[in-house]
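To: structure desk
From: M.T.
Subject: fold request, one chain
Message: Could you run this one when you get a chance? Sequence is below, nothing fancy, just the single chain.
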Amino acid sequence: MVKLDEIKEMARGLQYHSNKEYYKAIEAYTKAIVLNPNLAPAYFSRGFAYANKGQRDRAIEDFNKAIQLNPNDAQAYISRGVAYKNKGQYDRVIEDFNKAAKAYYNRGLAYNNKAQYDMVIENYSKAIDLRPDYIEAYYARGHAYISIAYNENRKAHHLNMAIEDFSKLIELNPNSAKTYHDRGLVYTYKRQWNKAIEDYSKVIALDSNFFEAYIRRGHAYRKIGQYDRAIDDYSKGIILNSNYLNASTEMQYCMEIVKFSNGIALNPNDAEGYYKRGSIYDKIGEYNMAIKDYNTAISLNPNYTTAYNNRGLTYYHKFQYDKAIEDYNKTIVLDPNYADAYYNRGNVYTRKGEYDKAIENYSKAITLNPNYAEAYNGRGLAYRKKGNRGRAISDFQMARDMGNEDGCRNLQKALKDDNK
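Reply: Done. Structure tokens follow.
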């Protein structure tokens, strides 16, 4: 533990140092060392003062001691390296600068564990400045940029910086499948599907067993509508890792899209084909494609109630609540006993904060289908928002008794809140 007298001598030394009174600075640092022989900053500062006076050997001796006491003091390595440079000992300069780079890298890792990403970037950058071929530092900094981008809603600037780092890594090591994969991942985040496909293809060329590359390339192919290629990649990825359940589901969706697309090609007036393909597009989050197919289905069959209802669901997923309500209204006009349409409209009103209308719609859905557990749960949430805990708890209990997990969780939460 540093004591007050040591702090005073260090402060006095630094003041003399800033005034270029190096003899007096050295004297003060020496007193601090006498008080505490393990005070690494005092050795470093005294070494710096000796270096300023041109006494390189004494400077190196003090830097050695500072490094012995604190092996991760990057600045001590740099200062000793400069002293060696002034002595013409260039091999030692390189060695010290590399050690300084390693110290900055290690400090970057420590800040990364604390999620202090600005300090992470700063330290990795210093490591790279000292050692421009520092592969591990480029890799770590690239991933730090990705972390920052995610924390700041995928800001393009930081994703671009990550791409720059991974590109530099590829320049340094063109045969690293992992680096191509990670750059492809950033292109995926940026929705630059063709570039992502190019990188994932390079991964596979370098390592044909890299199953994640097949899966992610399949995802990219799906995004650009190349479903046959997506299916092929998902299949290969699943063969390499049979536990990748998401890929199996994605492949199944792609197969269904291909099936319905082939059917539509044979019969362009098949409203049901468009409706079913639209439903798959909605499941995989391709909402614009889903709406386009529902529109076609409705144009071919203006009384297609389920198409209106499902298009309403897609608008709901896109947060276009007024359009969703319009579609649910149309569904109910076509079929006043369509319980799902009332339930779905209730969900929209809940999202809009119109709880009385939500309750009215959930109640209608329950009247039409007394076993509609989701409607009980939805109505319970609306009652809770209105402060009617008694009715909320009653509805949650009904949902729970019908086996609805959300109702069970909401009941537990409501009862817990009541006991506070």
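Reply (cont.): Residues 69 and 159 are 39 Å apart (CA to CA). Let me know if you need anything else for the meeting.
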